[in-house]
Amino acid sequence: MRTQTGQPLARDAMAYVLAGGRGSRLKELTDNRAKPAVYFGGMSRIVDFALSNAINSGIRRIGVATQYKAHSLIRHMNRAWNFMRPERNESFDILPASQRISEMLWYEGTADAVYQNIDIIEAHAPRYMVILAGDHIYKMDYELMLQQHVNSGADVTVGCLVVPREEASGFGVMHVDARDRITAFIEKPADPPGIPGDPDNALASMGIYVFDTSFLFEQLRRDAADPGSGRDFGGDLIPYIVKHGKAQAHRFTASCIRAAEEIEEYWRDVGTLDAYFEANLDLTDTVPKLDMYDREWPIWTDSRVAAPAKFVHDEEGRRGHAISSLISQDCIVSGAYARRSLLFTGVKMGSWSCADEAVILPYCNIGRHARLSRVIIDSGVRIPEGLVVGEDPILDGQRFRRTETGVCLITKAMIERLEL
């Protein structure tokens, strides 16, 4: 479907990314950064996926609402996403909670994060609004969701996933009729409703919503005037529209982008350390579940000028090499070994060290003879020579943040405590 001017619907849309979340379940990994700013996949940040989907879908007007510890997120977006040009009717607005409505108020909820910037959105005059969560890993063509929204005549279209019922209680869950019209929307229900004809599964919200802009503004103003509202899309706006208007479900399978070898519709909420670890390691598979090499649907990010990765030393027992691993630019693997690991930009591995199933964030330095297994190492950490992690669960739990599956998060503060 195209607009009256013959352009795709995405050209009349604005993407609005909600990127203010703290991500407390990622523990110390979000002590100094918002969840959308957390590194992912060797060179990217989590927020890059929603932003890349918007650009690849043809949307050229984007707003990003930030709040919690937003400095690194804003710095990243200024570096990576500054190529939009107003003369081409493009825009990229970073919208921190700036107390513009009231000097006492930060963003009170996801809906309020849009409401407080209505005047900025109006200046761009988009016909449609695509509201996105900024903290999920997936590839999706929002143009197809826009087309369904217009064709169905819905007041709101909600992106959704099919998930097992027993796993759905952590999501907003919708009950739908045979035509996928939403008849009930329940935020994090204890007993999620099943899908008609498929009772073992439920439809879970992806935190993606499409509105006609004028209708969205009406609902935001109505909600802002309600003293009992939590100012939240999933908790307040969507249930109200389900009850008083027309809400339509859009299934991820209808717009998921898959490269030729991708075998599943890949979507991950990397909101826990275990989920974050596993999603990163997914990329090391010979045929990864998520193809980051897909030139037809690239994941845009900050392109730094840096030296290529380097592997040095070729002696028995001291040979720089990596197997089933992603090694980013400016890395040096010096007589060390990495297996099924991700080395982000600027990681240095000293001689006789090894990393086995490791997610090592930028500019870490791994000391000689260190042995690291099933670890996430925060950026800038210097691992002492000879440190062993992943072989003694009790000792690991005393020194680091260890999950029930044995994944250890290592931060600068934890290393400093070891050295006291």
Automatic annotation (TrEMBL):
Q: Which residues bind alpha-D-glucose 1-phosphate?
A: 107, 172, 187-188, 205
InterPro entries xrefs: ADP-Glc_PPase, ADP_Glu_pyroP_CS, GlgC_bac, GlmU/GlgC-like_hexapep, NTP_transferase_dom, Nucleotide-diphossugar_trans, Trimer_LpxA-like_sf
Q: Any idea what this protein is called?
A: Glucose-1-phosphate adenylyltransferase
Protein encoded by which gene: glgC
Which top-level enzyme class is recorded in the Swiss-Prot or TrEMBL entry?
Answer: transferase
Q: Which residues form the Nucleotidyl transferase domain?
A: 16-285
Provide the species name. Novosphingobium colocasiae
Pfam families to which the protein is assigned, alphabetical:
Hexapep_GlmU, NTP_transferase
Coiled-coil region(s): none
Q: GO molecular function terms here?
A: ATP binding; glucose-1-phosphate adenylyltransferase activity
Q: Which NCBIfam families match?
A: glgC (TIGR02091), PRK00725.1 (NF001947), PRK00844.1 (NF002023)
